[in-house]
Each structure stands twice: as C-alpha cells, then as structure tokens.
Write a structure and sequence with these properties.
The structure holds two protein chains of two kinds.
Chain A (H helix, E strand, L loop, with lengths): L4 H13 L7 H8 L17 H4 L4 E2 L18 E6 L2 E2 L11 E5 L2 H13 L6 H9 L3 E6 L4 E11 L5 E3 L2 E6 L4 E8 L5 E2 L2 E6 L4 E8 L6 E10 L4 E8 L4 E10 L5 E10 L4 E10 L5 E10 L4 E10 L6 E11 L5 E10 L4 E10 L3 H8 L5 H20 L5 H12 L9
Parallel strand pairs in A: 1-7, 2-6, 5-8, 6-9, 7-10, 8-11, 9-12, 10-13, 11-13, 12-14, 13-15, 14-16, 15-17, 16-18, 17-19, 18-20, 19-21, 20-22
Antiparallel strand pairs in A: 2-3, 4-5
Helix pairs in contact in A: 1-2, 2-5, 6-7, 7-8
Chain B lengths: L3 E10 L2 E11 L4 E5 L6 H9 L8 E6 L2 E2 L5 H6 L2 E4 L6 E5 H15 L7 H14 L4 H5 L1 E2 L5 H15 L3 E5 L7 H14 L5 E5 L3 H6 L4 E6 L2 E6 L2 H9 L2 H6 L1
Parallel strand pairs in B: 3-10, 3-11, 6-9, 9-10
Antiparallel strand pairs in B: 1-2, 1-4, 4-5, 7-8, 11-12
Helix pairs in contact in B: 4-6, 6-7
The chains are: A alpha/beta, B alpha/beta.
Bound molecules: adenosine-5'-triphosphate and magnesium ion.
Chain lengths: 420, 250
C-alpha cells in the first residue's frame, strides 16, 4: 500500500482538532485544509511546495519551558516573545500603557476566522493549518489615541526539526493610534506558518518591519491580511533573508478613503534559497494611495519571486498606485521572476509599474574601476547602494541603520569575503 | 622615456575597425590636445587607455611610465596613475559623493604606499578641493552624479582628478556643456594640476578650451588614425577651416 506523507500531516491535524466541537474555529479551519497548494494554482506556480509536501512533519506541541536563544540583537525596548508558536509571558516585557495583549476566546477566534475567510487568504495553507493548530490567537491592541513611542519588538523563535509552528496574531490599532512594530522570525524548525490579521481603524498609523531570518532549513509561509480604514496609514517593510524557502504573502484591503499604504520589501538570497514576496493590494474606495518598492539581490543557485497584484475597483477613483520591482542577479545560476498584475476598473487613476531583472550595470562598474576601485569592491558598493537607496526611501529614519545592518549581514554570504 | 606611449594601436568594436594604428608619445610636463570629427574614435581611444572591458587592443601596445598596460585591469591602471574624465559621467544612485571619493583616493594611496586618510582628514581635504572647483558641500552628500547638471558633472570629474593626483589624465570633452564661467573654473582646476611630473591629454572639439589650457601639441584624429600633429596653431586652423581640408590632404 502506498504510504502518503502528505496524508500523515493532514491526519495529525485532524486528530488534534477532532477533540473540539464541529463548530469550533479549529474544526472549520481544518476541514478547509485539503492539500498543499499545487503548482497549477497561479500564485504557487513559481513557488512550489513539492519538496515540503514530501517531508515528514507534525504540528508542534509547544514546550512552554523552552528558553529563548538570546542571540537576537534587540532593537525594541518592549519585547513580545513567541516560542514554538506560543506567546511566552514569562519571557516578554511589560507592555506600555494603552497597549494590550490578550488571548482570543473561542467565539472571538471564530470571528477572526471569518474575517480572514472573507479575504483572498481563505485558502492559504497557513490560514487553515495555523488556525487549526495554533496554541491560541494572540490579540495585540493599541487603544484609541495612543501613540506608542517605543519600538515594540516581537520575536518568533523555536520549533523543532520535522515539526511545524503556528503563531497567530491579531493586531488592532484603534482610531488615531500609532505603533512602531518590529517582527523577527528566527525559527529553528522545518515549517513556520505565521498568520496575521491587521486592522487599522480610522487615522491609525502603523510602521511595520518584518525580518525573516529563520534557520537555513526552514520553510516559512507567512500570511498576512490587512484592512485599512479611513485615513489610516501602513508603512510596511519586509526583509527576507533566511530559510530555505520563505514566502511572505500579504493581502491589503484599502477600505477607507484617503488611506495610504507602503508595501515594500527586500530579499537577499544565496545558495539554494527560494524567496517569494507575494502581495495583493485592493483599492476598493476612492482617494487611496499605495506604493511598492521591491528589490532583490540573488547569488548562488537561489531563486526569487515577486508577485504583485494591484486591483482598482470601479469606485476607486483617484487612486494612486505605484509599483517598482528590481532584482539583481550576482551569479549565472541565480534567477528571479517578477510578475506585476494590474487590474484597473476605475478610469481616473494614476498607476505606474515597472519590473526589471538584471545584472549589475557595466557602466557603473567601469566608472568605479576607472577610479581605482577593484571589481569586487565595486560590486559590493553598488549592491549596498542598491539596497541602501531603497531602505532610505521606505523605512522610517530612526530605523535605517538597523535595517541596513541586517541586510548587510545577509550580503556577506553572497559578496566575496575578501572585500568585506 | 615617455610617460605615456601609444604604439600602433588597433581596435575593433563589433567587428568594426575603430582605431587603425594610433601612435602617440606624451612626455612629462606636456599637455596634448586631440581633436577630430564626431565618431573618429576619440572616446574609444580613451576607453581603451582606461582599460574598459571589450576595448582590448587587437594590435599595438600602450606603456605607462614604461610599463605595459595590456595585462592590467581598469582599476589597476587607475591606481597606477591613469585618470579618465568621462565624456558622459555615470550616475551612481545610492553611492554618496564623499564615500565614493574616499574609496577612490584610498585605493590610490594604498597603491602609492601612503597611509589611508582617516575620515576627518579626508573630509577636510575633499572640502578644500571641492571649494576650488565651486562644488558645494551639499553636492558631496548627494549620490554621485545623480541629478547633477551637465556642468556639475564635469566639475565633479575634475575634482576627482585633483584628489587622485594622477600621472596621466585624459579629459574627454570636459568642456562640453560648460558655460563660460564653468569653463574657466574647470580650466583653472586643470592648470593648477599641471606640473613637471605629470601629463594631460585633452580631447575637445573647441579651440576655446585651448585658450585656457594651452597645449604643447595638437593632434587630429580621423577614422581612428592621427592624420596630423602640430602645435597650438593647428587648433586654430581647425577652428577656421574645419576638418575636411586636413582630412583630404592626408
Ligand atoms: N560597441 C560598438 N560597436 C560598433 N561600433 C561602435 C561601438 N561603440 C562605438 N562605436 C563606433 O565607434 C566610432 C567611434 O566612436 P567614439 O565614441 O570613439 O567617437 P568620438 O570620436 O568620441 O565621437 P564624439 O566626438 O561624437 O564624442 C563611432 O562610429 C561609433 O559609432
Ligand atoms: Mg567622444
């Protein structure tokens, strides 16, 4: 008889969720997980999960005694720690006033599920598997009118070989509140499936930085659903550098007039890494702005994917949507794909997009060489400039240096060592 | 011995003969001017000297201070004292002017066995030289050549020359796009660097520049060949009669 590893994974989730009532959110989510996405599905064609589905994995049973690994150089003054996908109060800081972290009840969790199910993430594996198996959905709220001054830093660690972790977060910024959030994904696990729902109420403002730096064997299938209300602002920047396969998928719904979204990302890939930034921005109402800059630097045999959909509904007049993506290949064996997708149903819009994949510019290299700068150094200068330029444009001033250093660390593995 | 010696240089680009046996000797302390019609191969000659990829000699030889350049990459030639001021300076988005200059200067200093300048000493030196070229401090903070006007780019090239102290400088149409005042600034900048140990080759279309940077020799390049050499009076002849008479006579 043929033994299917894929069925093992599905069965282990079933076994776990079967202890709950049929109406429980976990049971509902579990029922919706039929299989890993197939390469026939358009958005998974360039990021195939074949080798993941052949791995023997089980959802983790979080070890609440496990320690954090203390190696992350913290930048925030308030730390929220997740290990094995579970929130660890004992390792987290006291939260500033106006910021609250709580566990969702079953009925709230059901509502959470319904909200995600309304989005185009309804079939994402992380939606269904993580809602089935998460230790609990954690809700982080910033109260009305509260402007949080300090950086809040969430650190995701833990996991085990052959196991999957399922941190699920609900972030709500109430009216006119603001927050700086830094998230660090440092899992040491076979599979991480972080799921997030972010709701920005009227005039709320979120600066978000995500750094994906999981272990070199980790698959990370991050899924994010964002709803923006009137005059809210999200400035989001992701740096993808870790894992064997990291895909960050974000669906952002601009639901309130005059909301503003920056959805930027950088991936730095080496060896056999596969990095994927998949985004969808839905302009459903008039007068919203979305801006996207995505840059990739690839060495070794790595592969990179950027898929960026922008949909402008018929009513969304005076939409301003910009999207630019650029990838630089540093080796003959690296490759990158960019797939912009514009669906515009309104007539009064400004939408621009451009996507390029190429090598470093010969004229620029020669110019540096002609000033005595050796080739390796010239390449390093241009690559760093390529990223720094973009980081300066898309990350809040106060965090430039931190983000650039994090990028630089990853570059060290693709730029020849002797020049660093 | 000549500081720069070009012997019978032949070069093809895409199977097209561009340089057809250029020979030129430049001695210490001299200024040479190369003039010639559009497309005659002046920029090609300068790229070849600077060691650009794809501009390798088919035949012939070039020597800098007696040392053959053919086996040297562009960066090594530059560190050895060769400088090219580009006809079209290249924009480097994200590369700050000051750090670019510092990288270049320290590469050269290392080669010369001099100590690398520390940050403060370097900034002081750069500002001093920049002010001579009327390059504002603000410009050094910007990305190299990005958003610079035509004239600003050319002034920034000569600023680099001043800081690198090359032994042989090739200035490819550094005068083009300059207004009257800028032409004076750039020429003064170049003249200030003339001494008995270095040499300068200026490529230009206009006699006007040669009123400021007075050459010892003028050469006419046509179809990849120097068809006539002479003193400064040759430039005046070109100005008056154009190239056709010279080319036909050759
Ligand atoms: N890659 C190439 N392949 C073939 N021909 C080329 C290539 N690059 C340049 N050329 C040709 O070489 C010739 C010389 O060009 P070059 O730029 O050296 O001229 P120039 O004397 O500097 O002209 P100008 O006064 O306009 O600056 C031109 O006819 C040009 O079209
Ligand atoms: Mg030219």
């Amino acid at each position: 008889m043929q033994h299917s590893i894929k069925d093992d994974y599905i069965n282990s989730i079933k076994n776990y969720t079967n202890q709950f009532e049929v109406t429980n959110f976990r049971r509902i989510a579990c029922n919706d997980f039929k299989n890993w996405p197939s390469p026939r599905e358009e958005t998974w064609r360039l990021s195939r999960l074949g080798s993941l589905s052949r791995k023997k994995i089980k959802p983790i049973n979080p070890n609440l005694k496990k320690n954090n690994n203390n190696t992350t150089n913290l930048i925030g003054s308030t730390i929220i720690q997740f290990i094995d996908g579970a929130y660890r109060e004992d390792l987290s800081s006291k939260l500033p006033s106006g910021v609250n972290l709580s566990v969702l009840s079953d009925s709230e969790s059901l509502k959470y599920l319904q909200k995600i199910k309304k989005s185009n993430l309804s079939d994402h594996p992380s939606t269904n598997v993580s809602l089935s198996c998460t230790p609990s959905i954690m809700k982080l709220t910033v109260s009305k009118d509260i402007k949080v001054k300090d950086f809040l830093e969430i650190i995701y660690e833990g996991g085990e070989d052959s196991q999957s972790v399922h941190p699920v977060l609900y972030l709500e910024l109430e009216e006119n509140s603001s927050l700086f959030l830094i998230e660090r994904f440092n899992h040491l696990t076979s599979l991480a499936m972080p799921l997030q729902l972010i709701e920005l109420r009227n005039k709320a403002s979120l600066n978000s930085i995500k750094i994906f730096n999981d272990h070199e064997k980790t698959y990370n299938l991050s899924a994010n659903c964002v709803y923006l209300s009137k005059e809210s602002y999200l400035n989001s920047f992701s740096l993808i550098k870790g894992g064997i396969f990291t895909r960050s998928e974000t669906h952002a719904y601009l639901n309130g007039c005059n909301s503003k979204l920056n959805l930027n990302g950088v991936y730095i890939s080496s060896d056999n890494q596969h990095h994927d930034l998949t985004t969808a921005i839905y302009h459903d109402v008039p007068d919203c702005t979305s801006k996207q800059i995505v840059r990739g630097v690839l060495g070794g045999k790595s592969t990179g994917v950027f898929q960026g959909k922008v949909r402008v509904a018929q009513d969304a007049q005076r939409t301003d949507g910009q999207q630019m993506s650029r990838a630089i290949l540093l080796s003959d064996t690296a490759s990158a794909n960019a797939k912009p997708e514009l669906e515009i149903y309104a007539d009064d819009v400004i939408c621009a997009h451009g996507a390029t994949v190429g090598e470093l510019d010969d004229d620029q290299l020669f110019y540096l060489n002609s000033r005595g700068v050796p080739m390796d150094k010239a390449r390093e200068i241009l690559i760093k400039a390529f990223l720094e330029d973009m980081i300066n444009q898309s990350v809040d001033n106060s965090l430039h240096d931190f983000v650039f250093k994090e990028a630089e660390l990853a570059l060290s593995s693709i730029i020849p060592k002797e020049t660093l | 011995m000549s500081l720069l010696e070009i012997k019978n240089a032949h070069l093809k680009l895409d199977d097209k003969n561009i340089l057809n046996g250029v020979s030129l000797s430049v001695n210490k302390g001299e200024v040479h001017a190369i003039m010639g019609p559009n497309g005659s191969g002046k920029s090609t000659l300068s790229y070849m000297l600077a060691g650009r990829d794809g501009y390798e000699l088919e035949e012939g030889e070039i020597l800098l201070d007696g040392i053959s350049l053919s086996e040297m990459e562009a960066d090594e030639r530059a560190r050895s004292g060769l400088f090219l001021a580009f006809q079209y300076p290249v924009e480097l988005p994200g590369v700050g002017g000051m750090s670019f200059l510092r990288e270049a200067v320290n590469s050269r200093r290392k080669f010369l066995g001099e100590k690398e300048l520390d940050h403060l000493a370097f900034v002081k030196e750069a500002r001093k030289e920049a002010s001579k070229m009327y390059v504002k401090d603000e410009m050094l903070k910007r990305a190299v050549n990005v958003g610079f006007s035509g004239g600003e780019k050319k002034r920034f090239e000569i600023l680099q020359m001043a800081m690198l102290k090359p032994t042989v400088s090739i200035l490819d149409e550094t005068d083009s796009g300059l207004d009257v005042d800028a032409l004076k600034i750039v020429s003064d900048g170049v003249n200030a660097q003339r001494n008995n140990d270095n040499a300068i080759v200026v490529i230009t279309h206009y006699q006007r520049l040669l009123d400021y940077i007075v050459p010892d020799f003028v050469h006419i390049l046509s179809d990849g060949l120097i068809i006539k050499s002479g003193g400064p009076e040759l430039a005046l002849e070109v100005e008056k009669n154009g190239y056709s008479g010279l080319i036909n006579a050759a």
